[in-house]
Amino acid sequence: MSSSLKIITVVGARPQFIKAAAVSRAIASQFSDQIEEKIVHTGQHFDENVSQVFFDELAIPKPHYNLAVSGGSHGAMTGKMLDGIEQVLLKEKPDWLLIYGDTNSTLAGALAASKLHIPIAHVEAGLRSFNMRMPEEINRIVSDRISTLLFCPTETAVRNLKTEGISKGVHNVGDVMYDVALFYQEKARTQSNVLERLNLTPKNFGLATCHRAENTNDPQRLESILGAFAEIAKDLPLVLPLHPRTKKLITENNLASLLDLITITDPLPFLDMIALEQGAKMILTDSGGVQKEAFFYNTPCITLRDETEWVETISLGWNQLVGANAKAIIQAVEKINTGTNPMVQQNPYGNGDASQKICHYLLKHLN
Predict the structure, then answer these.
(1) What's residue 4's pLDDT?
(2) Helix orientation angle between 326-338 and 219-232, rounded to the nearest 10 degrees
(3) With b meaning 16 or more CB within 10 Å and e meaning fewer, what string describes 5-30?
């Protein structure tokens, strides 16, 4: 293959698989004669439901390398990934390293490439929660600092970088998640039967997720969130796909009785999740990706965190930020039920062509 450009893509967690799928699809369909991509899966999410299924469903090329690094502390995990990615980069000698988002895999990729003087392109650059206690915030800031190309999803992200003195190589390409949302919207409706399987009526159920360490590792926050879910489920059927880690912590903290009225499932395949997001009356989540998917599918969202990177969803009224406060969660549900939270129809996340723009900039920058 005589490609003019060789890219190594580093992914390790569910949201990254989804974003990488959009760019990989653009490369395969429009740039296959100009770009050769090899994928490194760090193994950060090792649960079968959270990785292999996604590769299958999203038609992502099988990873050329699987580092199988999972578990352990942030430092240990990042260190092992750094070592593994460095070996791949020394062997492959790519023109670019492509990283996504804000995980330990992102940081490890960025550090490995920067030490080998391989230019880094960061997809989803410029996002900030302004909470330095979040490991993701550290990962983002460091990755942005050492990237050559910074692909921002919104104007807000561009402004955040400017405030930090970063303006070179910064491009607002729109959000690759919007590319994905548009591509899979109809597929999920036609190919997933999850609503029938779970006996749900469209727009007459809520979808909930809870997996972030800040919520699950703190017994009080976890109890407060689940208590609110239990209350909501008295009036609105609620579906909660449970991550194995969250499940374990619910059992350890003797909170399982709060799930009695809730439909519990294992983590769901991507198309099922998209079908539920489109079909739900509302979504309650602490996931960054799910907040945004809710916005793309015009489903009101309640975010169980103290801050969010997706400030546009809040200012346009589609998302309410409530933390882990049971009273605030129930009040937010009430606002959706009574229509007292005005929602503006506007999309700050681009035109659904972020992936093509990323490929163009990578080629242009190298030339």
Answers:
(1) 84
(2) 30
(3) bbbbbbbbbbbbbbbbbbbbbbbeee
**What distance, in Å, lies between the first and last C-alpha atoms of the chain?**
19
- Asked if 358 and 284 sit in the same domain, the reply is no
Dig out the tokens for 38 from the structure: 């090899």
If DSSP codes are grouped into helix, strand and coil, which group holds residue 205? coil
Copy the structure tokens of residue 95. 């023109």
For the chain, what's the residue count? 367
Q: Which amino acid is at 209?
A: T
Instruction: Say what percent of the chain tops pLDDT 90.
Output: 84
Total domain count for the chain? Answer: 2
Domain that holds residue 254: 190-338
pLDDT band for position 57 (cuts 50, 70, 90): confident
- For residue 116, give the DSSP letter: T
Instruction: Give the whole-angstrom CA distance, residue 143 versus residue 109.
Output: 9
Give the C-alpha separation, 286 to 307, whole Å. 10
**In this predicted model, what pLDDT tens digit does every residue of 214-237 receive, in sequence order?**
999 999 999 999 999 999 999 999
Q: Could you tell me if 121 and 144 are in contact, meaning their C-beta atoms sit under 8 angstroms apart?
A: no
Helix axes 14-30, 176-191, angle to 10 degrees: 90
Read off the pTM.
Answer: 0.90
- Identify whether 184 is part of a domain: no
Residue 239: which CATH number?
3.40.50.2000
- Asked if 124 and 42 sit in the same domain, the reply is yes
- Matching residue, tokens 């899966």: 41
360 annotated active-site: no
Q: Has residue 185 been placed in a domain?
A: no
Out of 41, 211, 360, 365, pick the active-site residue: 211
Which helix (H) or strand (E) segment holds residue 285: the answer is strand 282-285
Q: How many angstroms separate the CA atoms of 61 and 40, rounded? A: 11
